[in-house]
From TrEMBL:
Family listed: Belongs to the transketolase family.
SUPFAM superfamilies hit by this protein: Thiamin diphosphate-binding fold (THDP-binding) (SSF52518), TK C-terminal domain-like (SSF52922)
Organism the protein comes from: Megasphaera intestinihominis
Named cofactor requirement(s): thiamine diphosphate; Mg(2+); Ca(2+); Mn(2+)
Protein name: Transketolase
Record text on cofactor binding: Binds 1 thiamine pyrophosphate per subunit.
GO molecular-function terms, A-Z: transketolase activity
Subunit structure: Homodimer.
NCBIfam families listed in its UniProt record: tktlase_bact
């Protein structure tokens, strides 16, 4: 190791420790211990360019152990990604570019929002899948225009979380050889030595998943780390897992190797002692970085930029030789024409017969696959039930990465993270399907998608007690409320074919918001009043005769038909009711006050909401004088028709509820 290499590694340690101390908050252990790993990777093995952070063929780096964020911020600062020393000094402060955990879209150079341990590993698998898929589609002999690696740095906590096993099991099955995982193995967690809860042979587990496994015994040996990375790159059949044995808090005499270094500042005296121990100049001075460090990182950054220059020339030649592929590339990396799709009669066409919205969704997927070549997705072993398969498009596999359908296996949590990784990579528009009740397994990753403003799509079928005989374990009750509580998620529960098309239109054209499509197992009729107005979140699907109706019935999904039926019965008794279909509360809340008043006039206080789920969230629409026809308990195991009657989802019960609020 050269003197300048040693100094540059120590610069990461010193800058991280000083920033965490100034904030009086943070995790110094990982940056101090893993600094040699990060330095060697970024300096000698990773293609990236600070002057073009979104370069399509860059290698991706995911800090799955996001609590060690100062490691990443130090790299971004030294390589010139736009983080200034003032930004570093504002670590963990309000509005800063250096939040406690890395945030995608907030800080240039951050590839994914990582905080929940292990989530970054699932996203890395998604990125590696995206690279493999796009390479299979676009690369030509002599023109590897898609040819990059995904690197993920993780710790013990990431590997304790079950998501790592789900994701890596699939990665091994798929033979994602461009995925390289760097394991910062220091045997320390917050509560102490990992042996108290984590004694498994991690390498054996990874080998069982189908990974090449490599071990570096000394985490300060740059040459050994570099050799391991090159060995990983040389394996063209397996993803690679490199265990690098480190000491948490390396260099700090008082805390090195102990849990005390993990999650709290080292203390000013300990930092001075660390700097002296590392031979750092001016140890008493905070945030001091020698000029030669910046000069060396500038040289490394220039070398990294040269790799992109070579690729840009290759791509220009490729575009000239294969203009049809260049046009396809542009299509993959462009948004759908929203106006054209809105006016596309074939997209909105439907057969006038009862159909389950899950089946109608399957029809829409197969219409969109020809409009959006970047559409890519599948289900958690449920494609025949979720209707998520794109016909004739093949399945993504180790032997055919060009397939557009994905067998995610029974891995909902990892599927959610992988879907995020696919979207983050670029050139892919992903969707993922499962039964609605199992969105519980996906929720943490849906939350991250919302945080990152990713336009991912979730196909969530079997949406209510209409699941029937499978019983309460499979009948979603509280999941609508759960998803609706998430900021920046559009939860769309359509009532028929037109509304299902609207839901997919919303998903296909979304720029920064995930879409959850909540779909029925049972057949529903095509409703006479349904329209593209569903894109406003709520609209009048069947109006009263009076200018001011006696009451308003609101419903979503399968219960809209029930609301219309109740309206017809009430009319016979002289009660004039308006029916509002509300497939998406979030979209309705985005409308102006005039439209909201037009649909739900404040003067009409007699309101009933009908939904075969928990009524949590309907209060703001029914008000103090209204009521709900909803689920007050878990479901049961019986045919769907029996259950709807058992739990009060009948015309008679809705009529009675309306009469009660009218009085």
């Amino acid at each position: 190791m050269s003197t300048i290499d040693t100094t540059c590694v120590n610069a990461i340690r010193v800058l991280s420790a000083d920033a965490i101390q100034k904030a009086n908050s943070g995790h110094p252990g990982l940056p101090l211990g893993a600094a040699p790993i990060a330095y060697e990777l970024w300096a000698n093995h990773m293609n990236h360019n600070a002057k073009d952070p979104k370069w399509a063929n860059r290698d991706r780096f995911i800090l799955s152990a996001g609590h060690g964020s100062m490691l990443l911020y130090s790299l971004l600062h030294f390589y010139g990604y736009g983080l200034t020393m003032d930004d570093i000094k504002q670590f963990r402060q309000d509005g800063s570019l250096t939040p406690g955990h890395p945030e995608y879209g907030h800080t240039t150079g951050v590839e994914a929002t990582t905080g929940p341990l292990g989530a970054g590993l699932g996203m890395a698998v998604g990125m590696a899948m995206a690279e493999a898929h796009l390479a299979a589609i676009f690369n030509k002999p002599g023109y590897p225009v898609v040819d990059h690696y995904t690197f993920a740095l993780c710790g013990d906590g990431c590997l304790m979380e079950g998501i790592s096993s789900e994701a890596f099991s699939l990665a091994g099955t798929l033979g994602l050889s461009k995925l390289i995982v760097l394991y910062d193995s220091n045997n320390i967690s917050i509560e102490g030595n990992t042996d108290i809860a984590f004694t498994e042979n991690v390498q054996a587990r990874m080998a069982a998943f189908g990974f090449q496994t490599i071990t570096v015994e000394d985490g300060t040996d740059l040459d050994a780390i570099g050799k391991a990375i090159e060995e990983a790159k040389a394996d063209k059949e397996h993803p690679s897992f490199i265990t690098i044995k480190t000491q948490i808090g390396y260099g700090c005499p008082a805390k090195q190797g102990s849990a005390a270094a993990h999650g709290s500042p080292l203390g000013e005296e300990n930092i001075v002692a660390m700097k002296e121990n590392l031979g750092w100049p001016k140890p008493q001075e905070t945030f001091y970085i020698p000029d030669e460090v910046y000069a060396h990182y500038a040289e490394l950054s220039q070398k990294a930029g040269a790799a992109e220059a070579d690729w840009q020339k290759l791509f220009a030649d490729y575009a000239a030789k294969f203009p049809d592929m260049k046009a396809k590339w542009d299509a993959f990396h462009s948004d759908v024409d929203a106006q054209a799709l809105l006016n596309d009669e074939d997209f909105w066409a439907y057969e006038d017969k009862p159909q389950a919205t899950r089946s109608l969704s399957g029809t829409m997927i197969n219409r969109l696959k020809d409009i959006m070549p970047q559409l890519f997705g599948g289900s958690a072993d449920l494609a025949p039930s979720n209707k998520t398969e794109m016909k004739g498009e093949g399945f993504f596999s180790k032997t055919d990465y060009s397939g557009r359908n994905v067998h995610f296996g029974v891995r909902e949590l990892a599927m959610g993270a992988i879907t995020n990784g696919l979207a983050l990579h670029g050139g892919i528009r992903p969707y993922a399907g499962t039964f609605f009740v199992f969105s519980d397994y996906m929720k943490p990753m849906i939350r991250l998608a919302a945080l990152m403003s990713l336009p991912t799509t979730y196909v969530l079928t079997h949406d209510s007690i209409g699941v029937g005989e499978d019983g309460p374990t499979h009948e979603p009750i509280e999941q609508l409320a759960m998803l609706r509580s998430l900021p920046n998620v559009n939860v769309f529960r359509p009532a028929d074919a037109t509304e299902t098309a609207a839901g997919w239109y919303l998903a296909a054209t979304s720029q920064k918001t995930p879409t959850a499509l909540v779909l029925t197992r049972q057949n529903l009729p095509q409703l006479a009043g349904s329209s593209k107005e569903a894109l406003k979140g709520a609209y009048v699907i069947a109006d009263a005769n009076k200018a001011v109706p006696d009451a308003i019935i609101m419903a979503s999904g399968s219960e809209v038909e029930l609301a219309v039926s109740a309206k017809d019965e009430l009319a016979k008794e002289g009660v004039d009711v308006r029916v509002v279909s509300m497939p998406c509360m979030e979209l309705f809340e985005q409308q102006d006050e005039a439209y909201k008043e037009q649909v739900l006039p404040k003067a009409v206080r007699a309101r009933v909401a009908v939904e075969a789920a928990s009524d949590f969230g309907w209060g703001k629409y029914v008000g103090l004088d209204g009521t709900t026809v909803s689920m007050k308990s878990f479901g049961a195991s019986a045919p769907a028709g029996v259950l709807f009657k058992k739990f009060g989802f009948t015309t008679e019960n809705v009529v009675a509820a309306v009469k009660k609020v009218v009085k």
